[in-house]
Amino acid sequence: MPVLFFVASTFSSNLFAQQTVLPGKDKVANGNQGNIYLVFPFENAGSSPRLDWIGEGLEELTIQRLSAAGQQVYSREGRINELDRYGLPPRAKLSRATMLRLAEELDADFVIFGTFSSDGKTLTVVARTLRVNPVRLLPALREAGQLDGFMELHTRLVWRMLSQNDRGYPYNLAEFAKTQRPLRLDAFEQYVRGLLASEEDTRLRELREAARLDPEWTAPIFALGQTYFARNDCNNALPWLARVPAGQSRSAEAVFSTGVCRLRLNQPDRAEEIFASLQESLSNGGPKTGTVVSGGDLPEILNNLALARARQGKSASAESDLKRASQLDPDEDDYTFNSGLLAWRKGDFSAAAGFFKEAAQRQPENAEDRALLIASLEKSGKKAEAEQERLTAEEILGPSGLPAVNLDAKGEGVTRLERVKAELDTTTLRTEIEPAASINGEASGGEALAARDRRGRQEIAMGNIDAAEREFRTVLTSNPADSAAHFGLGEIYRRRGRLDDAVKELQASLASRESAVVRTRLARIYLAQNRSDLALVELQRAIKLAPNYAEAKELLARLHKVSPASGVR
User: Fold this and answer.
1) pLDDT of 468 over the 80 cut
2) What's the CA dihedral at 307, 310, 312, 315 to 10 degrees?
């Protein structure tokens, strides 16, 4: 089997399966909670493709069981998102070397994969655990039994995994089993088949059947709400989303989608209430979400909260929310664009032109940004500047590349152009990755440094830049060659506008470890410095490392479009 070699982003928006304390189960196995697991689907070693669902089911169930036992584990969505970033299908068969490299880039400590075989009545599962550092393939674990005993068989298997990975694992099988929510096999099968269904109607049918068979199980309920939400059917999405209990692992996402639906239904007062409450709850680590985000703001929530307030004429609050969102995610031009719409609503066309110009500089090929920039300049009486921008737009987009702009100051046209964030990045919606003892140095040196690297990334995602810098500098004091810490400092300097310092840190990161992600980030900074020749070199190197890396390919295409004379091919 060929090795599919690629590099994953350290700061990517991977979803983590969130730890859940089940009602009435206050004794959750901790084990070594500092470990992060990456689980892949199990391969069907039998001859019946109709049982392929079991492979994905073993992945999903392993994720759920590890999470319920207090472990940190990448969700199925997180794995799929990473594969998609590199042009790989969700069910790609990866070599162990590729799994290991992916785990290294994602800072996972253990990779879980395996095989299964079944004749429809009996089931045999062989699970393998690959330790990342130091690299070691642990002995295979085998469980066999009747297929209708699938859940009990799997519980034994996961308990053996945890005990194998941590010889001091404190719980016996009976105690571990108490941390797990009982699941009906028929409901679980319908749920997995729903996740795998390529046809939307089939997916909905399977998920509804899973929810009917096990009405108290959150997973199919949330999946149904999100499926309707994805097809913009808010009337059907809202009842399902409302059934996701507060405090469950997906409740924050369910509440966020509910708020988006209220915006889509043009109910800004209800949307404002939802987003304001969600932001406060997440920032305070409130019990409604079952998460801990210490003092953090999330830009997607702030953006949508601003739009809800803008529609109600609460301009000052909306401006503040959008400014904060831009500070948290300076690469995203949607927040600047929405600030331009807000200024347009107020009739301040000169300010609107400034925002749209900033957005157009960040995304030069975005026709909508440029059309609104030109319209704002014309509205503010700057005809000559508007004409110059029109000529620039024609050079970049072609003679017919600009869309028509039909807006009055406060009409529905402004609302139609708003960029609502439909997806919540849940990277930071999780409990602490490392227990306090490990971060304070009671764990081994390598584990403590890895914990600080992870904590630094979490602080950046929450906008706590000073706290993130402290974490990365602590790591570099102990290990001056730590690539992740240099990358983190580079991101901090970039956000502070210290681009030369950011370049030095990213180069130091590359000196320790090659990464397509770091080279692409370096290219972005070179472009911001108008050093397109250096950006071109970095992008070509990034694509050589990861030929399917979408971000690098998009940036390279953009560079070619803006500067065709650069010789980019």
Assistant:
1) yes
2) 150
Contact criterion met (CB below 8 Å) for 203 and 186: no
- Burial tier of 226 (Cβ tally within 10 Å: 0-12, 13-18, 19+): buried
Span 275-294, average pLDDT: 64
- Is there a contact between 138 and 114 (Cβ–Cβ < 8 Å)? no
- For 524, the enclosing helix (H) or strand (E) is helix 516-528
159, 176 contact by CB (below 8 A)? yes
What whole-number distance in Å separates Cα of residue 460 and Cα of residue 446?
Answer: 21
- How far apart, in whole angstroms, are the C-alpha atoms of residue 301 and residue 278? 8
Q: What is the pLDDT of residues 469-482, one digit of tens each?
A: 999 999 899 889 88
Name the architecture of domain 16-182.
Answer: 3-Layer(aba) Sandwich (3.40)
Residue type (1 letter), 12: S
Kind of pairing between the strands at 122-131 and 141-146: antiparallel
Q: Which of 388, 386, 389, 310 is nearest to 344 (CA)?
A: 310
Q: Identify the band that residue 566 occupies on the pLDDT scale cut at 50, 70 and 90.
A: very low
Whole-model pTM?
0.76
Residue type at 378 in one-letter notation: E
Architecture in CATH for domain 333-419: Alpha Horseshoe (1.25)
Give Cα 321 distance to the centre of its chain.
21
- Determine the average pLDDT of the residues in 370-388: 93
Q: What's the whole-number mean pLDDT along residues 143-162? A: 96
- Write down the residue that tokens 């009486």 correspond to: 381
Superfamily of structural domain 185-244 = Tetratricopeptide repeat domain (1.25.40.10)
